[in-house]
Amino acid sequence: MILEVLRISSQKDSTSGILFDITDNKRKFLCYTIEDEYRAVKVKHETRIPAGVYKLTLRSEGGFHSRYIKKYGADWHKGMIYVNNVPNFEYILWHTGNTDESTSGCLIFGDSQTSNLVQADGFVGSSVNAYKKVYPIVRDAILSGEEVYVKYVDFDDTGDNEYIAVSGREPVISYSPAEKESESSRQETQVYDFSKKFPEWPGIDFKIQKPMIRSEKLKEWQVAAGLTADGWYGNGTKRKVQELQKEFGLKQDGVLGKITWETTFAKEN
């Protein structure tokens, strides 16, 4: 089986696309897609994976896998669709969501699509319905022993590409652009799931001040961050905030605001 992610609109904050099954040189529409934006130089959590051809397998470990078993059942869910050997990326999965805020390099499915010229983060709707339609097709092919590949095509204009002609009869080459790379040359990409339920940000910018801020809500964040949950925003909590902000690629101001709060809970362990 050979699939194709045809990237049709590369904008500042997101990439809109279409997923096709192009097995036997026939192009069959499966669903719409949303990804992070194109960048010539990778920025953590804000960059789509390079164009190329990659092997797909099922990954039966990790937070996404555990939650999807609970959501869909072990008889239906057999592992996350996993994109193998992506240069400078790891743990690239295909899953549900609605905008590029639901992904860190991963691919999101949808049955409908809003132009990312209209909505900067892009949008795909009925994501669960699309997932329930596409996942069994890929799952069953992999479980049958068939080799499954996906070709990511930069059909959109990023400013670096020549015009790309796409037809249902173009040759398909099954290879991984990273097959010759050493394991040490690859970087791990952290997966974030902003679609899961987590404690709502209480609307407070936690920071060092006098008198010191104390909040029962802060205890929930401290637990998620691996700290002792005392509810006090002191120097230890500030240092942890700055550590995570550096990891997330955010401004390291030591203020626990909405973005740092939500990204901490969305992080996959």
Describe the structure.
- This protein has helices at residues 63-72, 127-143, 216-224, 235-248, 258-266, and strands at 2-10, 15-21, 28-35, 52-59, 80-83, 92-95, 107-110, 112-114, 123-125, 148-154.
- It has 269 residues and is an alpha+beta fold.
- It folds into 2 domains: 2-185, no CATH class; 197-269, Orthogonal Bundle (Muramoyl-pentapeptide Carboxypeptidase, domain 1), CATH 1.10.101.10.
- The strands form 2 sheets. The chain has an 8-stranded mixed beta barrel.
- The longest helix is centred in the middle third of the chain and has 17 residues, at 127-143.
- The two termini are 31 Å apart.
- The model is unreliable at 167-187 (pLDDT under 50).
What is the secondary structure topology, with strand pairs?
Layout: E1 2-10, E2 15-21, E3 28-35, E4 52-59, H1 63-72, E5 80-83, E6 92-95, E7 107-110, E8 112-114, E9 123-125, H2 127-143, E10 148-154, H3 216-224, H4 235-248, H5 258-266
What attributes characterize this protein structure?
about 270 residues; alpha+beta; Muramoyl-pentapeptide Carboxypeptidase, domain 1; 2 domains; eight-stranded mixed beta barrel; two-stranded antiparallel ribbon; 5 helices; 10 strands; about 20% helix
